[in-house]
């Protein structure tokens, strides 16, 4: 079955540590996205990529970094510079163009201890 | 900047009753409005969407209406069932001059609880 796989599902991190969240898709989608979800705040865009080896900052990119070396993969690194990293992180992908439907992964919950 | 307001934040309904969630958006150029359903611990799933060239769209018990003049759109769920309990998000696609694809701006979400 085609879909988006995020790992790990749960992750604990000590303050000052970087952590990388994995996102892999086998839908052959050109575009991939990372969103952050906090209670009562909806989904906020962190980074997105419309093509391999290219990505753009979203609304809340500070403290995060990404790479897009392969079409199928879009890992997100939460760096120690992110002041409040505890959140639910969602990866999504879509086909190219203006009306591509977003398909989401199951999410990764990061807790900073 | 781009903004999508969603109301109410929580909605409790009796099984069999209807539920209505309303959203307003700020960018008059927006032309794509999807609705997502998120069950506990899972990622959101698209349940219905509407484009600006139509005013209403139905899919079984779910319908979405769009009023472009007033810049608001609504989700209607009829004959609610316990499995409709979830968080629902509206979204609107905004277009930046530097980005021809646009990006989705999400509302804050509505927690719907359907009681038997």
What does this protein structure show overall?
The complex is a heterodimer of chains A (113) and B (116). By secondary structure, chain A is mainly β. In chain A, 0% of the residues lie in helices and 50% in strands. Chain A contains no helices and eleven strands. Chain A has strands at residues 4-7, 10-13, 19-25, 31-37, 43-51, 54-57, 64-66, 76-78, 87-94, 103-104, 108-112. Chain A is globular. The mean pLDDT of chain A is 92. With 116 residues, chain B is mostly beta strands. Chain B has no helices and eleven strands. Chain B has strands at 4-7, 10-14, 19-25, 32-38, 45-51, 56-59, 62-67, 72-77, 86-96, 99-106, 110-115. In chain B, the strands form two sheets. In chain B, strands 2, 4, 5, 9, 10 and 11 form a six-stranded mixed sheet that branches. A five-stranded antiparallel sheet of chain B has the order 1-3-8-7-6, with no helix packed on it. In chain B, β4 (32-38) and β5 form a beta hairpin. Chain B is globular, with a radius of gyration of 14 Å. The relative contact order of chain B is 0.33. The mean pLDDT of chain B is 91. Chain A binds chain B through residues 4, 6, 31, 40-45, 48, 50, 56, 58, 90, 92, 96-107, and chain B through 4, 6, 9, 31-32, 34, 36, 41-46, 49, 51, 89, 93, 95, 99-104, 106-109.
